[in-house]
Amino acid sequence: MAEQLSAGRFSQEAWARNLAAFEAIRTMPFNAELADGSLSRERFRRYIVQDAHYLIGFGRALALAAAKAPHPDRIVQFARGAETAIVVERALHGGFFQEYGIDAGTFAATPLSPACDHYVAWLIATAYAEPYEVVLGALLPCFWIYAEVGRDIFARAKPDNPYRAWIDTYAGEEFGEAVAAMIAATDEAAADASPALRARMHAAYTHATRLEFGFWDSAYRDLTWAL
Could you tell me which residue ranges the Thiaminase-2/PQQC domain spans (predicted)? Predict the structure, then answer.
């Protein structure tokens, strides 16, 4: 599926350069146990709380990408993406929040983990300070890696997997279409970029990929602030 999505040169290069990192993410304990349904409720609970925090920052970064987009169609794409991150995907978390007894007060009182804080701060800083092309390089891994991990888990998860709602969302056709649109936008932006700018796009993509790994790993290992 990754090869089908990689329609343009930048995305092909980025996927190939970071393939080892993706394999590490795909096979890491969090995702392996999510796939077979053995992931502990406490680990998944930590993950969904942090992911809900993350989506707020991700929505802001998408809104900034919309503001920087050079074409009206891309403005609409990223503005809708920001809405989806805040409204639609948080509805998924809302179902799990109810199941796990997490109310608004509990969520608000839970601080961002070091991994989540780092990812959100870096993503928003990139969206503010960097040119449009680099912003897309930073945003793409969250879309693409989630889709590929979702498809991989969907292929091996049993129907009675307790995390089926999460699996179905990220392996679904609607999310797949959003990923394909993000890849197309990034390849479009890279097409006219100078070699130096493309290098910055690649650096952003690689760093975001590392942060994706760190986010899941942090939830699995319960990495918190020392003080």
Answer: 29-221
Distance CA 28, CA 193 (A): 34
- The Cα 117–Cα 57 span in angstroms is 9
Q: Does domain 17-221 have CATH number 1.20.910.10?
A: yes
Return the closest-CA partner of residue 200 out of 129, 142, 147.
129
pLDDT band at 3 (very low <50, low <70, confident <90, very high): very low
Radius of gyration of the chain (CA): 17
CA-CA distances (angstroms) from residue 181 to 74, 79, 129, 143, 176?
10, 13, 24, 10, 9
Q: Percent of the chain, pLDDT > 90?
A: 73
Is the pLDDT at 1 greater than 70, yes or no? no
Distance CA 223, CA 145 (A): 22
Question: Is the pLDDT assigned to residue 218 strictly greater than 80?
Answer: yes
User: Which three-class secondary structure state does DSSP give residue 227?
Assistant: coil
- Torsions phi, psi of 148, nearest 5? -70, -40
Cα gap 74→82, rounded to integer Å: 12
> What is the SS3 assignment for 37?
coil
Condensed to tens digits (0 to 9), the pLDDT of residues 151-201 reads 999 998 888 999 988 888 777 788 889 999 999 999 999 999 999 999 999
Cβ distance 123 to 56 under 8 Å?
no
Residue boundaries of the structural domains of the chain: 17-221
Answer whether 138's CB lies under 8 Å from 208's CB: yes
